[in-house]
Specification:
Number of helices: 22
Radius of gyration: 34 Å
């Protein structure tokens, strides 16, 4: 299990140069701060005694220059270290969040993940700087205490009396605040997730006139957030007055004893000035409340990041594919669970290379889960998925990418421009290949009408759902894998357009294996085989023409007309 500490150590390892500079400047600054009162005392005693003070003053000036320079460099190092650590955490979290095969990823809604990626990583990334600066401050304070003991043991004893109460206050604050900070951030994440969900359905909310009810739903966790925030403020208030009361008591006690030591001749005037300075240095330990607060926030942020990073990820294989295109897909005893529910139950399937398989079934039958398994976008809980006899878990990422490609119902608009979107899987592909893929997907006509054609930025391209789907199909054509999974990839096309696109794809992918999630009878009719899923199980496997004789099968396609004959002869017969 990934601990927040381990996560921060890994991030620090990626920013080790900045970390070393941060530590070095903190140590030099602390050493200079401790040496300054001593140099000041020597210079003051020399002036009082009427002795030459040029050397002590020069030493004081040099030390002051060192402290100022170290402070400036530490500010630079802190910024660089913090930024590099946050970037490392965001890369780690983004890689895991974008890994579609991570089991349990559904636990983290998009809004919650966005909050963890932005605020959570920023809060966690500041932990290193906070720890280094706080440790340097505490060590400087300890040095000030040691200096007080060396000047006069009574001074050291007086200050030490304030240490146990300080440790107790700090420990109580950390114990109480850590859970509060985590709960506060979790509640913020819930609100973010609800808000993003509502924004995604803004048109539906507006059309149904339920904006007020949705606003109330999104803000439902707000009272809980307020209560947690007030508890944090009360904890800060209580800790603040405790520290504020302790600090002047200890300081007055130390300075009083120092004054008596001067009157008794135990210390010089310069040493009394050093006592004042060292007392201030030692007292800085009592001013670490803000640092403790920041550290509590950082730990809570690191826990939220670790929750996502700790999700088990599929281990990539190392095996390459044997040369030569084939594309046979085999599922053997494949089982998928979602909590206690069986999404797919011991599915056995053999799709010969070059076959077009339509997968049909009611909502929730397991179609999309089966589609995700073929490209290892999720792992089966049992059984094996293989391409050409090689289990997917053994294939190296590049081999899996070459073997299986997808076109989705809602293609992501990635790539910057229309050309970049089509060539997203293969950015080095030629312009001719991009244009040919667009033509095959029947996308070239509307692309040419865009302001800059294929170079039109996606945010300037007014695209309908069907046009976006055709660009997604063009992207799959450019990818050109052995197995193509069309996950409801033509659902936004009208029947006539779908038929034209399907005809073009059939020609372009004539020797490829296609797995099509089908909701239309016409789509299933054009396939070689139809897999009928019912409640996660294979109810039948056969040709569309044969299955059409069943009333229950026809009812899958509401008001579907009599289907045409399939475009190729069936390669397998119906199996119950």
């Amino acid at each position: 299990m990934t601990s927040p500490q381990g996560l921060l150590r890994d991030a620090t390892a990626e920013a080790r140069g900045w970390f070393l500079l941060t530590v070095a400047t903190a140590v030099i600054g602390s050493a200079g701060t401790l040496a300054l009162p001593w140099a000041m005392a020597r210079a003051l005693d020399a002036v009082v005694a009427g002795q030459p003070a040029s050397v002590p003053l020069a030493a004081f000036a040099c030390l002051l220059a060192v402290v100022v320079t170290a402070g400036a460099l530490q500010t630079l190092a802190n910024g660089g270290y913090g930024s590099a650590t946050v970037a490392a955490l965001r890369r780690t979290l983004a890689r895991r969040a974008l890994d579609a095969g991570v089991p349990g990823a559904a636990r983290f809604p998009a809004g919650d993940l966005a909050g963890r990626l932005s605020a959570g990583c920023a809060q966690a990334g500041s932990a290193g700087v906070t720890v280094v600066t706080t440790a340097a401050s505490l060590l400087t304070s300890l040095g000030g205490v040691v200096a007080l003991w060396l000047l006069d043991w009574r001074l050291g004893l007086c200050f030490s009396l304030g240490v146990p109460p300080l440790v107790l206050i700090a420990r109580l604050f950390m114990n109480r605040s850590s859970g509060l900070f985590l709960h506060y951030q979790q509640t913020q994440g819930r609100i973010s997730a609800l808000l993003l969900e509502a924004l995604g359905g803004a048109r539906t909310i507006g059309a149904s006139g339920t904006a007020r009810a949705e606003a109330a739903r999104v803000l439902q966790p707000l009272p809980e957030l307020s209560r947690t925030g007030h508890r944090i403020w009360r904890l800060q208030r209580d800790t603040g007055w405790q520290v504020g009361l302790l600090a002047p008591v200890v300081e007055v006690l130390v300075l009083g004893v120092g004054g008596l030591a001067l009157l008794n001749g135990d210390i010089s005037a310069g040493e009394l000035a050093a006592v004042v300075a060292y007392a201030a240095v030692a007292m800085s330990a009592l001013d670490q409340l803000d640092a403790l607060f920041a550290l509590g926030v950082s730990v809570a942020g690191a826990r939220r990041v670790a929750e996502v990073v700790d999700q088990p990820a599929a281990t990539p294989g190392t095996r390459g594919r044997v040369a030569g295109r084939r594309g046979r897909v085999t599922l053997s005893g494949v089982t998928v669970r979602s909590g206690p529910r069986l999404v797919l139950d011991a599915v056995d399937l053999d799709v010969p290379a070059g076959t077009t398989l339509a997968v049909v079934g009611r909502s929730g039958a397991g179609k999309s889960n089966l589609a995700a398994l073929i490209g290892r976008l999720r792992e089966p809980d049992g059984g094996t998925v293989a391409v050409d006899g090689v289990p997917l878990r053994e294939l190296a990422p590049h081999a899996l990418h070459d073997a299986v490609g997808y076109a989705f119902e809602r293609p992501a608009l990635l790539g910057g421009t229309v050309r970049g979107m089509i060539a997203f899987a293969r950015p080095d592909v030629s312009d001719e290949a991009v244009r040919a893929a667009a033509a095959a997907a029947r996308a070239d006509d509307f692309v040419q009408r865009l302001p800059h054609g294929f170079d039109t930025p996606l945010h300037d391209a007014p695209l309908s759902g069907g046009e976006i789907q055709r660009l997604g199909l063009a992207r799959a054509l450019v990818h050109d894998p052995d197995v193509i999974v069309l996950d409801d990839a033509t659902s936004s096309l009208d029947t006539a357009t779908e038929a034209r696109v399907d005809s073009a794809l059939a020609s372009a992918w004539s020797d490829r294996t296609q797995v099509v999630i089908a909701h239309r009878a016409s789509t299933a009719a054009r396939a070689d085989l139809v897999l009928w899923l019912d409640d996660g199980r294979v109810r039948a496997l056969g040709t569309h023409r044969a299955l059409w004789r069943r009333t229950a099968y026809r009812e899958l396609f509401a008001a579907a007309p009599a289907a045409p004959a399939p475009r190729r002869s069936a390669t397998r017969q119906e199996t119950a």
